[in-house]
Amino acid sequence: MKQSILVGLISGLCSLGSYADTDAPAKLDYQLHNPNFDPQDDTYRTIDALFSDVVSAPEYADLWARVRTGFTIPELDHQLVSKWENYYASRPEYLNRIIKRGTPYLYYVVNEVEKRGMPMEIALLPMIESAFNPRAESSVKAAGMWQFMPATGKDYGLERTWWYDGRRDVVAATSAALDYLSSSYGQFGDWQLALASYNWGPTAVARAVAKNEAASLGTQFIDLRMPDETRNYVPKLLAVRNIIANPGAYGVTLESLPNKPYFATLTVGKHMDVKVAAELAETPVEELLRLNPGFIRPVIAYKDDRSLVLPVAKVAAFQKNLADYDKPLLNWQPYVTKQGESFEQLASAFGVAASELKEINDIGGRERIARGQTILVPKITGLDVSDRQTLTALAANRAAEPVDTGANDKPHAPVLASAEHRVIKGDTAYNIAKRYGMNVAQLQAMNKAADAQVQIGQILRVSARPESVAAGKDGREYIAKRGDTFASISKRYKVATADLKKWNGAKSIQAGTKLVIY
Q: Where is the signal peptide (predicted)?
């Protein structure tokens, strides 16, 4: 409609212009329509730019290419970034396992981050939080892909009922997480501090910042005293960001991801069984629950602010099948038990196994007698095979899963980013390799050398990580004192002066300078 109005307006103006060259009075086309006017391509482009509801964006065939263009969080010059780069790069199967698990959700998260103008690193945060598992639950009961604690989830609108857990809902939890991070960024004006507050809490971060301000110390992430978990949290995210930005430099191959949506959301306006929803969508129950992990009972309880998530290719079929469906949408109903009723008798009356009745209703296995509570029972006695398969899938969907940290994955020797070393007097292949966390064979392979001989002035390719960092070890912190020099500190700790300078990226030191020594 907008285009037709504008085209007509341009048409009318062009018609007016053509009359201006004659003596005839101008005749305005009040219908804003001229059938002889043929807009050119650039006219339509102008119309789209001015009136389209869709913001034009560069086209990327691969989602990773799109993600990389949005990285904006500053690099953190800290040994923990190198440690975690090594951790993930040495476990490529783990990294790709996370990506495979997150494939159905990643495009959606990227889109939401992009809409808000947030750094694209935020879209990778579920890799650190839950390894992209909506059913993950931590030891402290944080749950879902974004790992919301119950109280925090409630603060950000994530409802938890007997039917539904919003912390597991990918759509609802993503919105809540981005709200949280946006609020934290508004408070601190720094994305590293906003991320730290997501892990530690904004009150704790604000307190640490105020404490440093009072002591005339730095107030950036790297300057604050914080728990080890938070200290490692931002470096983990930046390490993953660095690997995804340039996987080849770390010897990692990432699976390509299509830059198109995997799912769509819709509001159905009706309560319905999980099994019925899956049938209408012509989708296996397991796939429906993978996209809707927040629904934890046999019935999908409708609410205005709650979406059903379906594969993009199945939305049209669902809508058509729902319009044509003439059977009951609900085959389960609430039943108020009477005090003293036996669950065995109830199960028999409704044609289900007692274990199934208890599983559906979160009733302990040892409980035998009802207490007058409301339970969910079938409307029709007897469950067929597909009903039982649905209940099995629902039980798996409700089960909490530990966060996959990759700790059980055997690390490989990663191929790390390379740097250059100029051979000086006294250098040998052995001490050069040792300095850069390599062995002589690796040094020879990297330089395609037939033997271990090196020549003064020769430029060698070496690992960009010193030995202790490549091994994933934390360094000790040293605060320089009056009179200290790189040479004196190197001698005291028996490390090379060149390595000490490289580890700290410093050209000079003075009293109070913080150094890390491996």
A: 1-20
pLDDT by position in tens, the chain (length 518): 444 444 454 454 444 444 444 444 444 444 444 445 455 555 545 555 555 554 445 678 999 999 999 999 998 877 788 889 889 988 999 999 999 999 999 999 999 999 999 999 999 999 999 999 999 999 999 999 999 999 999 999 999 998 999 999 999 999 999 999 999 999 999 999 999 999 999 999 999 999 999 999 999 999 999 999 999 999 999 999 999 998 877 788 998 999 999 999 999 899 999 999 999 999 999 999 999 999 999 999 999 889 999 999 999 999 999 999 999 999 999 999 998 999 999 999 998 889 989 988 989 888 999 988 889 999 877 778 888 889 999 999 999 999 999 999 998 865 555 677 888 887 888 778 777 777 777 787 778 787 888 899 898 888 765 444 444 444 566 777 777 888 888 777 667 777 777 777 666 787 778 787 76
H helices of 310-384, where? 315-324, 343-349, 354-360
Nearest to 144 by CA among 152, 133, 159, 156: 133
Contact 476, 439 (CB under 8 A): no
Q: Which residues contact 441 (CB under 8 A, 6 or more apart)?
A: none
CB 416 within 8 A of CB 86: yes
Q: Which residues contact 409 (CB under 8 A, 6 or more apart)?
A: 91, 93, 94
Q: What is the DSSP letter of 433?
A: H
Matching residue, tokens 């790189």: 486
Residue 114 annotated in active site? no
User: Shortest CA distance to 292 belongs to which of 418, 171, 161, 446?
Assistant: 171
Look at residue 67 and give its three-state secondary structure: helix
In whole angstroms, what is the distance from residue 407 CA to residue 404 CA? Answer: 8
Q: What separation in angstroms does the CA of 26 have from each of 5, 12, 32, 37, 119?
A: 21, 11, 14, 17, 55
Nearest to 469 by CA among 74, 90, 131, 75: 90
8 A C-beta contact, residue 190 and residue 200: no
Q: Do 81 and 127 contact (CB within 8 A), yes or no?
A: no
Structural domains of the chain ordered from first start: 55-150+168-250 (1.10.530), 332-379 (3.10.350.10), 420-461 (3.10.350.10), 476-517 (3.10.350.10)
Of 39, 55, 185, 50, which Cα lies nearest the Cα of 119? 185
Which residues have CB under 8 Å from 419's CB, separation 6+? 436, 461, 462, 463, 464
Catalytic residue among 129, 137, 279, 356: 129
Does the global pTM surpass 0.90? Answer: no
What is the C-alpha to C-alpha distance for residues 374 and 335, in angstroms, rounded to an integer?
A: 5
Q: Alpha-carbon distance 468 to 277, whole Å?
A: 55
